[in-house]
């Protein structure tokens, strides 16, 4: 079936949005607990009836806290869906990366400018035996996914791939989304996380064991002296 002129116009506008849009990241705060701000610019004009989805691919050295996100939901301008359960305690080398689907809030037509802030946290890393004091964790910009009911055949949009993803945060069904092609210059950001000195492991363990034994002996002598049993 041939597309109507109105539908073709919406498909062309969706393609123009994808080609003119940009996604950038900015990190704030220090240490293991940071804030990641994502800025999305959609040009040149507002697209009526369009839905926006940001797909984050997180490395194993970073996690988001679902309990924290739930407590901040009333203050956020987005809803978030995790692809798996998040263990908050395991170190980086004992876990793998994960995905999050972020659905921005807006009323009416999709806006041309979005700014979303996510609290993120660094995981502890294995001690280094090479004298390295920090581990670098890279966070890539999210995939920008768009769809509109007014453009039913997204595969007509050349040079951009079509992927399946949840239609909404409820994850009750999947929809076809068109994904913006990768930018030539990635705006990835890096987090520098401190790591322990592996060469000091034996010294620390030995010192801890010696201190424990001294405390036990001292306590035992005190109890025997004062007949505390």
UniProtKB/TrEMBL annotation:
Annotated metabolic or biological route of this protein: Glycolipid biosynthesis; glycosylphosphatidylinositol-anchor biosynthesis
InterPro entries associated with the record: PIG-X/PBN1, PIGX
Predominant subcellular localization, coarse grouping: endoplasmic reticulum
Family to which this protein belongs: Belongs to the PIGX family.
Record bears the keyword Endoplasmic reticulum: yes
Record's bilayer topology term: Single-pass membrane protein
Organism, as annotated: Gambusia affinis
This protein's name: Phosphatidylinositol-glycan biosynthesis class X protein
Residues annotated as transmembrane: 200-224
Function description: Stabilizing subunit of the glycosylphosphatidylinositol-mannosyltransferase I complex which catalyzes the transfer of the first mannose, via an alpha-1,4 bond from a dolichol-phosphate-mannose (Dol-P-Man) to the glucosaminyl acyl phosphatidylinositol (GlcN-(acyl)PI) intermediate to generate alpha-D-Man-(1->4)-alpha-D-GlcN-(1->6)-(1-radyl,2-acyl-sn-glycero-3-phospho)-2-acyl-inositol and participates in the sixth step of the glycosylphosphatidylinositol-anchor biosynthesis. Probably acts by stabilizing the mannosyltransferase PIGM.
PANTHER family in the cross-refs: PHOSPHATIDYLINOSITOL-GLYCAN BIOSYNTHESIS CLASS X PROTEIN
GO biological process: GPI anchor biosynthetic process
Subcellular location: Endoplasmic reticulum membrane
Presence of the UniProt keyword Glycoprotein in the record: yes
Listed GO CC annotations: endoplasmic reticulum membrane
UniProt entry keywords in alphabetical sequence: Endoplasmic reticulum, Glycoprotein, GPI-anchor biosynthesis, Membrane, Transmembrane, Transmembrane helix
